[in-house]
Design a protein that fits this description.
It is an enzyme of class 2 (transferase). Keywords: Cytoplasm, Methyltransferase, RNA-binding, rRNA processing, S-adenosyl-L-methionine, Transferase. One of its GO terms (biological process) is regulation of DNA-templated transcription. This is 16S rRNA (cytosine(967)-C(5))-methyltransferase. InterPro entries: MeTrfase_RsmB-F_NOP2_cat, MeTrfase_RsmB-F_NOP2_dom, NusB-like_sf, NusB_RsmB_TIM44, RCMT, rRNA_ssu_MeTfrase_B, RsmB-like_ferredoxin, SAM-dependent_MTases_sf. This protein is an alpha/beta fold. It folds into 4 domains: 126 residues, Orthogonal Bundle (N-utilizing Substance Protein B Homolog, Chain A); 35 residues, no CATH class; 56 residues, 2-Layer Sandwich (Alpha-Beta Plaits), CATH 3.30.70.1170; 208 residues, Vaccinia Virus protein VP39 (Rossmann fold, 3-Layer(aba) Sandwich), CATH 3.40.50. It is 46% helix and 15% strand. Strands 5, 6, 7, 8, 9, 10, 11 and 12 form an 8-stranded mixed sheet that branches. The chain is globular, with a radius of gyration of 24 Å. It starts with 7 loop residues before the first helix and ends with a strand. The model has no long low-confidence stretch (mean pLDDT 95).
């Protein structure tokens, strides 16, 4: 039997407890994996359990509830331990039930005392005898979908209202599936074909992205283990996140402002297209100094430092630093609720409320208002978010255009001509469309 600090199931309980207290799931997992030095199979099991319990939290708690008679007296870690057992039992087909139960009971014994071990043993055996409640039997559709897909009812209601029931169910059907591992090729270093060949030789299964022209989807070991990543020839980025910069079609001599830039993925993507000797430059802003350092580090790793000027500045205060009409293009990849990222950051769904989206819309409009005069006549402002809610997307676009008659909507064009038959100028990407993150992109051309 492995020691507690090497047991992936026990480490999963530790990670989930820390995440409940506010830690980010990805950062917490990375920290534990760095400290534990697990074998690959154990690291994969730990990661699977942590993300799986978060993704299916409402479902699992619904199934656990009948077996906990005094929830207020239950220690939080014991509840989490039982949640991990249910997740493994219901969702990991290759793991034998006997192994799950034995490991769970042993963790209860090691982490607690004999009374906790007996309690956990009793709950598991009762579950096994009676079976778990089936969410499909819930009659109310919104409540049923909330429990089945582990999504808060407010979000389901909002999506049905804005997208209809059929599209909402299609989105819900995919958000608990694993996110693709995608990378973007640094075209200043090598071509997509060259990157594909080298990654294949390095043992990866490589598929061209259907979303972005310079994107690749990798299967196998983590992308950051590759030599291409270590050299800055590729960077890890979701396929949808590649689209805002791609759709800007930046040319070598343009001066570009990335107004909300950290950690700099889109900044370096823009920088690949400019040429300092031709007058091209990317100015990248973030309100926090430590995040500006991330932008700088990203640009250095990708060999693009000479094309990027990173500054600590609130995008709402650009008037203090930049002259009107200074930039040919501006990207506002705005702070948002992140609802489009629920597959990659599953805890987001539980942390947000509709009022958060409405409050963020005001900030997004304030940023757009602030940068509007900084783009030159005939210049373009690109507005993007990683959410799928109208409050932060369509409604912000309508409000900006209503308040700024000197701008007109411009159709968003991507290299792969995504959704070419759509009626809107803006581009909406949903998690079920291409298996990528949910994203929204809109563009405004300044005409006077």
């Amino acid at each position: 039997m492995t020691t507690p600090d090497q047991n992936p199931r026990s480490l999963a309980v530790t990670a989930l407890m820390r995440i409940q207290k506010g830690a980010y799931s990805n950062l917490q997992l990375n920290q534990i994996l760095d400290d534990a030095h697990l074998e690959t199979c154990d690291a994969n099991l730990l990661t699977n359990i942590v993300y799986g319990v978060i993704q299916h939290e409402l479902t699992i708690d619904y199934q656990l509830k009948p077996f906990i008679k005094k929830p207020n007296k239950l220690q939080p870690w014991v509840k989490v331990l039982l949640e991990t057992a249910i997740y493994q039992w219901q969702y990991l087909e290759r793991v034998p039930k006997r192994a799950i139960f034995n490991e769970t009971i042993n963790i209860a014994k090691v982490r607690g005392h004999e009374g906790i071990r007996r309690f956990v043993t009793g709950v598991l055996h009762q579950m096994d005898r009676t079976g778990l409640p089936d969410p499909a039997e819930i009659t109310d559709r919104t409540q049923r979908w909330s429990i089945q897909y582990s999504v808060p009812e407010w979000l389901i209601t909002t999506l049905i209202d804005q997208r209809g029931a059929e599209k909402t169910e299609a989105i819900l059907n995919v958000i608990n599936q694993p996110a693709n591992q995608s990378v973007r090729v640094n075209r200043t270093r090598l071509t997509v074909a060259e990157a594909t060949a080298q990654l294949t030789a390095d043992g990866y299964d490589v598929t061209p992205s259907a979303v972005s022209e310079n994107g690749l989807v990798l299967h196998g070991k983590p992308a950051n283990h590759s030599e291409l990543f270590k050299r800055g020839d590729i960077t890890i980025q979701d396929e949808s996140a590649m689209l805002p910069a791609e759709s800007m079609h930046v040319t070598a001599n343009q001066e570009v402002l990335d107004a909300c830039a950290a950690p700099g993925g889109k900044t370096v993507q823009l920088a690949e297209n400019v040429d300092e000797s031709a007058g091209g430059q990317v100015t990248a802003l973030d309100i926090h100094q430590h995040k500006v350092r991330l932008i700088t580090q990203n640009a250095k790793r990708m060999g693009l430092s000479d094309r990027v000027d990173a500054l600590t500045l609130d995008a709402r205060k650009v008037d203090d630093v930049f002259a009107d009409g200074m930039f040919d293009q501006i990207l506002v990849d705005a702070p948002c609720s992140g609802i489009g990222l629920v597959r990659r950051k599953p805890e987001i769904r539980y942390e947000k409320q509709l009022r958060d989206s409405e409050a963020l819309a005001k900030i997004q409009l304030t940023i757009l208002d602030a940068v509007a005069n900084k783009v030159t006549i005939n210049g373009i402002i690109t507005y993007s978010t990683c959410t799928i809610l109208n409050q932060e997307n369509r409604d912000v676009v309508a409000a900006f255009l209503a308040d700024h008659p000197g701008f007109i909507s411009q159709r968003v064009q991507t290299a792969n001509a995504l959704k070419a038959d759509r009626e809107s100028d803006y581009l909406e990407i949903y998690p079920d469309d291409y298996g990528s993150d949910g994203f929204f992109i809109s563009q405004f051309k300044r005409v006077r």
